[in-house]
Design brief:
Layout lengths: L9 H39 L14 H24 L1 H32 L4 H20 L7 H14 L11
Length: about 180
């Protein structure tokens, strides 16, 4: 934080703002990783199907080509076997839902922050908006249950948020 009034209740708003932004970044990276993995699985499985155009290439009939094709079939069959257990589509939907929840929260808190700054105060109306935002965070947070934390990714995203939203930029009312 900084040397301004650290006891002011408006800091809770800014803490929630940072939390929402952190979670948008964090889950966006996790979603991107899962989507890439899912795409890899789909490409390998599709390429190995007997009906695929790749299966008809002459190169697969030669010694090295036939070894490569055999390895591709082993990998593809392993991917096809693992796919239902990994539930990548379910994870994609879950992360997408979490991101949308945190994006909404981020927007709401950003709007609340602007209202506080524009009015020059942190009043009862702002406090009610903050309480509503806390309820939204709770609803989104419930969806995070069972997701393993990637601490290094979290730390990287936190550093980005600290850079984007430094405490010195937040308006602290004089009241």
């Amino acid at each position: 934080m900084d040397n301004r009034n650290l006891e002011h209740p408006v800091w809770a708003v800014y803490g929630l703002f940072r939390t929402a932004r952190l979670n948008v970044k964090y889950y966006s990276v996790k979603l991107h990783r899962i989507e890439r993995l899912n795409l890899l699985f789909q490409i390998v499985i599709a390429a190995s199907l007997p009906s695929s155009t790749m299966a008809g290439y002459e190169i697969w009939k030669s010694g090295t080509g036939s070894l490569f094709w055999g390895a591709l079939l082993v990998v593809a069959s392993t991917f096809a076997f693992l796919q239902p257990f990994l539930k990548l589509s379910d994870k994609i939907k879950k992360y997408d839902s979490i991101i949308n929840g945190y994006l909404t929260l981020d927007y709401d808190i950003q709007e609340l922050s602007a209202k506080i700054s524009n009015s020059g105060s942190y009043n009862k109306t702002h406090q009610k908006l903050y309480e509503s935002a806390l309820k939204r965070k709770k609803m989104v947070g419930v969806k995070e249950k069972g997701i393993k934390l990637d601490k290094s990714l979290r730390d990287k995203c936190k550093a980005e948020v600290d850079s984007e939203l430094p405490s010195k930029n937040f308006y602290i009312p004089e009241e």
